[in-house]
Amino acid sequence: MLKIPIFAAVFLSFFFAEDFTSYTQNIPNSNEKIEMVAIKGGKFMIGSPATEAARKPDEGPQKEVEISPFWMSKYETTWDTYLIFQNKELETEKNLKVDAIARPTKPYVEMSFGQGKNGGFPVCNVTQFAARAYCKWLYQTTGIFYRLPTEAEWEYAARAGTNTPYYFGDNPKEIGEYAWYFDNSNGAYKMVGGKKPNAWGLHDMYGNVAEWTSDFYEENYYSKISAKDPSNQMFELYPHTIKGGHWDDDADLLRSAARRPSTPRLKQRDPQIPRSKWWLTDAPFLGFRIVRPVIVPSQKEIDAYFALPPVDE
Predict the structure, then answer these.
(1) How many CB atoms lie within 10 A of CB 256?
(2) For the ranges 198-202, 235-239, 245-249, which has the lowest average pLDDT?
(3) Using one digit for the tens of pLDDT, what is the confidence trace for 97-116?
């Protein structure tokens, strides 16, 4: 068990009492901002019970896990903020606190596929590596450590204290009030925040675009999952866990417990050799959102997180 010194425990108690609230992260030298929602820590049952309709084998066995508090972005990451990262002229390495940040290569096609970019549309067609690089850029520009959520953090936040298939209950017919999916999307994503949020104030946790997590996907992951802040980090390119479902999915794929692996099919039409580490060609339905842990990792841990290399195909 991790033991926190008395002074640290006192500090954390003071922190939670005084500062653990939702906030807005401004992007320096721009008009863009990211709304961050405070997610209190707690325990929940990850996965789905054997009796849940449309349940798949990789959603079990259910296990109780404990999650430490964190902040999560209220909305999916938008093109508006991502394009600042993509287009910014970056500082030289000698002026950075950690390794220099690479920026995305020029895409070979218009990556929204005509679904829209300006005004609050979710970014799509980005690799997990690109999403992590965006987090690194945020860290360098704000001084605050942001990262992708683990699979457990994502599901904990999506459930918002519920244990039903959806955070609004059991009836999939109600999902149109909360999500853009196959039956109401007209074949494209929509501006973020257009549907009702869950009880913790998070929008589009279901549908619109599916979302990257930081975890490596294993079908039997829950059989060996850690009881406290589980994280499944590996260097392999495929597969990683994707959560939330998207605008072209049926309602059952939007359940809180539903999970899927990334595969090479996400970039099967990539014309580059080797294939791009930044862009997908076949995932106009896949984006991400970010989290910020309350307990800040050490500089060594932060450097290690951002140093994870892309894996060539």
Answers:
(1) 29
(2) 235-239
(3) 444 555 556 665 676 767 87
d(CA 301, CA 296): 9
* Tens-place pLDDT, residues 264-299: 776 655 545 445 666 666 778 999 999 999 999 999
- What residue ranges do the domains of the chain occupy? 6-307
For residue 32, the model assigns a pLDDT of 96
Q: Which fold has domain 6-307?
A: paralog of FGE (formylglycine-generating enzyme) (3.90.1580)
* 291-293 β-sheet, strand order: 23-26, 33-39, 70-73, 291-293
How far lies 223's CA from each of 53, 59, 218, 220, in Å?
Answer: 21, 10, 10, 6
Cα(135)–Cα(290) distance, integer angstroms:
8
DSSP string, 248-290: TS-GGGGSTT-EEE--GGGGTT--SSSPPSSB-SS-TTEE---
Torsion of CA 181, 184, 189, 195, to 10 degrees: -80
Using alpha carbons, select from 252, 249, 241 the residue that is nearest to residue 166.
252
